[in-house]
Amino acid sequence: AEVELRLSHWVPATHPIQTLGIEPWVKSIEEASQGRIHITIFPAQQLGAAPDHYDMARDGIVDLSYTNPGYQAGRFPLYSLVEIPFHMNNAERGAVAMHEWYAPIAKTEMSDVIFCLANPHDPGTIHSKGPIHVPADIKGLNVRPAHATMARFISSLGGAPVQVPAPEAREAIAKGAADAITFPWNSINIFGIDSETKYHLDMPFYISAQLMLMNKDSYAALSEENRKVIDDHCTPEWSGRFSKGWAENEASGKQKMIDAGGHTIYEPTSDEVQLWRDASAPLIDTWKEEAKAKGVDADKMYQDYLEALGRHDAKF
Amino acid sequence: MTSADLIAVSGFIVLFALMLLRVPIGVAMGLVGVGGFAAITGWKPALNLLAQSPVRTITDFNLSLIPFFILMGVLATNSGMSRELFRTGQAWFGSFKGGMALSTVGACAGFAAICGSSVATAATMTKIALPEMKRVGYRDDIATGVIAAGGTLGILIPPSVVLAVYAFITEQDVGKLFIAGIVPGLLAILMYMLTVRIAYARSLPAGEPFDLGNAIRSLGGVWAVLLLFIAIIGSIYFGVVTATEAAAVGSLLTALIGIARGRLGPRLILESLVEALRTSVAIYTILIGAILFGYFLAITQTPQKITAFLVHLDLGAYGTLAIILGFFLLMGCILDAMAMIILLVPIVFPVVTQLGFDPIWFGVIIVMTVELGLITPPVGMNVFVINTIAREVKLPTIFRGVMPFVAVDVLRLILLVVFPSLVLFLPMTMK
Amino acid sequence: MTKPKIGLLERISLGIETVAGVLLALITVLIVVSAIGRYLLAWPVPDAFDLSRFLIGAAIMWGFASVGFRGSHIKVDIFAEMLPAGARRWIDSFAWAVLLAFSLLLTWKMLGRVTSAFYSGEATFDLRMPAWIFLGFIWLGVAFANIAILARLILVASGRATLEHFETVDMAGDDATEDRA
Ligand code: NA
Ligand code: NA
């Protein structure tokens, strides 16, 4: 092919992220470019560790990098708004909203790469060994948080975040190092944690998002017609399409637990939901302070996010 | 051959040239990795690998059990635990013909249970057991052969630094791998003891009279080792703590026992820390280089091509396995055990899993294969270590003495290939 | 260089090793305390994970300086040892020059990692301590390593030292207490 691109991510090649997200996207690019662009996928951290994926795109180690900005706490403070719980309730439509909201912000916050796609996972929730219904139930518990924002939330509720690598999450729960974990639904089954956590809070608690990023030089080196192909695949619509398959796979996890039996899936009352949202309010204040420190109009930026979510029917 | 293949082949050639010129193995791998990556992507991205990857390797939490298990062995040696093990072995086995050789095997096994390294086990036992065996009239070849072979138990009987690195590379459960090493380790002890008695039946000195009181008293000295082993392996087996935590707790307990018995002071503790760190750094350097080299292999897609090639040869699962193990034995002629695992396992592991072999079982098999490399000529690390400490015993003498043990090692390897459940039944009972 | 200078190098090297050794002790205690906190007291030490991994990294990099000076990296010794002393000196000098080149490249590129962390505000997970401080501390180790490796290279090239290959093992096998006590 005229252009050879390397795409790196950190999950196994068989993961729904690759089979239902990355592969169809790559195929569409190759077809739209009539074979001029060829993309080789390097899964499973073959070209670099998961937390290094942003730098790998920046430094040209790869051309395209599937990155979780949340792996590096504190580095992308504006982006971290999406990690605050109780905002997004649907990944496919939420991806479109997040893309529209973040694309202009990325021009400054991620100025040394090209922002291409947003890929939030299906809203995850809190899975625990004992029942958790309201924020006060977190007090005194050890919780494995999804990201640094969630760790802050757990701490503010009187719980203790326990950071362990994802593959050790099951071990941590089984061995009593953690009493609860925040995870998307099917990941609980995939990682075999379903045998440990029998209680689940049935609400779209939080998301963690991944981004597809591109190296600037690789982008600049493209011919005009090839650049158009890439541009056409870095759109809010594609963010939605990219996110759909994996989200459905994760969402199916809840039904699997119901079918398997032995699980208590608790749907909180609207009063209880309000307790959770109130408890998370300080996170928004902290975010606004950090955003202001970056010199942006934090209130407007926050409103923009809510509007984008509302526009695409993805608002909690 | 594509140009990527050509670059990959040239990379291997330069790598071996640099290694033969005594460039540290990790550094050779790292430089060739970066250089090869540059040949494909250009220099700027390739050099940037050095910005992220080495820091990521040394700050990887999962690898931190390596310095801890090494530290535990050093602390145990420095607080005299290895000598006590030998004395206890002597008190119980000393009355048999060739009893002191049997005691040495037992002491090696006991030390292996708290030390993660084979060369350290061999070095320690050379200092303790060799003078004693010479004193009572053992032939040099028998005495050093037993120690060289016994030393290999260090990386098979848990804890094992080599198994830990294998777990890291192949993303397997390190706890399961440790537990999987127990039965093959016990089998090795038994077979080594039989070898002493059968292969050297005519040349062994007589034993010393058995003294029950002395034998029982000798146990007082080894309770500490026993306690440590049970605490560490037990807590890993029952899943009380993670392997890293067990390693840290083990180091701290070893230090505390040493202090409580008046064997370890601040100076000796600091020396032990520095010593453990130096050994760990040597291993981490290889890991840093191997991971850089791995990126080079990945970008040229070498492992996939080798897998495809080997599977295409259609030698059947066991035929291919035999080729892989033979290749490891061959590389064992020039490479260190750890370097072999780090450099070669990523290349052959996809083949092995594709052929349907169990990854935990393969870990134990491959460790036993590199163990063989430790005692076979021309380069056998354990043999060299003994030779460095006991300068008066020549290398050919040690290699001659160790030959019967090489033979039973091969036998044991075949046994475990034919009956994989000997390796797997114990880890399968874990939660 | 004269003998007293080798003594000075020894002392500097010992100083670096002491820092690294103390770090290793600290991490051991930190992980044990964190484990006790997690399992027995339901009170995990905040940032125990990030702290211990950063400190391990620092201990290893400071140790990298030590090993660069001692010459006890794992290498293939068999061919070098078959050669006469003169040729071996050339080979050993070459080997350590290559190590120095690697270390210099590492120092240069890792500095970029540190400054990147400084400007990006990267922080630890729980307490949000700036990551660049830890990365900078790790970087100091590799910076020292250049000096240590150069020192050994000069000693080797001028024929006043060799690359010892079992130094590490020797000490590991030193069943010291009973002999000293
Ligand atoms: Na061991
Ligand atoms: Na060998």
Automatic annotation (TrEMBL), chain B:
It is a multi-pass membrane protein. Residues 12-421 form the TRAP C4-dicarboxylate transport system permease DctM subunit domain. The keyword Metal-binding does not apply. It is found in: Cell inner membrane. The chain crosses the membrane at residues 12-40, 61-81, 101-130, 142-169, 175-200, 221-240, 246-264, 276-298, 318-348, 360-385, 405-426. Keywords: Cell inner membrane, Cell membrane, Membrane, Transmembrane, Transmembrane helix, Transport. The keyword Glycosyltransferase does not apply. One of its GO terms (molecular function) is transmembrane transporter activity. GO terms for cellular component: plasma membrane. Signal peptide: none annotated. Pfam families: DctM. Part of the tripartite ATP-independent periplasmic (TRAP) transport system. Belongs to the TRAP transporter large permease family. The complex comprises the extracytoplasmic solute receptor protein and the two transmembrane proteins. This is TRAP transporter large permease protein. The lineage of its organism: Bacteria, Pseudomonadati, Pseudomonadota, Alphaproteobacteria, Hyphomicrobiales.
UniProtKB/TrEMBL annotation, chain C:
Keywords: Cell inner membrane, Cell membrane, Membrane, Transmembrane, Transmembrane helix, Transport. The keyword Nucleotide-binding does not apply. It is found in: Cell inner membrane. The chain crosses the membrane at residues 12-39, 51-69, 90-111, 131-155. Residues 27-156 form the Tripartite ATP-independent periplasmic transporters DctQ component domain. Pfam families: DctQ (PF04290). Its main location: membrane. One of its GO terms (molecular function) is transmembrane transporter activity. Signal peptide: none annotated. One of its GO terms (biological process) is C4-dicarboxylate transport. It is a multi-pass membrane protein. It comes from the Bacteria. InterPro entries: DctQ, TRAP_DctQ. One of its GO terms (cellular component) is plasma membrane. The complex comprises the extracytoplasmic solute receptor protein and the two transmembrane proteins. PANTHER family: 2,3-DIKETO-L-GULONATE TRAP TRANSPORTER SMALL PERMEASE PROTEIN YIAM. Part of the tripartite ATP-independent periplasmic (TRAP) transport system. Belongs to the TRAP transporter small permease family. This is TRAP transporter small permease protein.
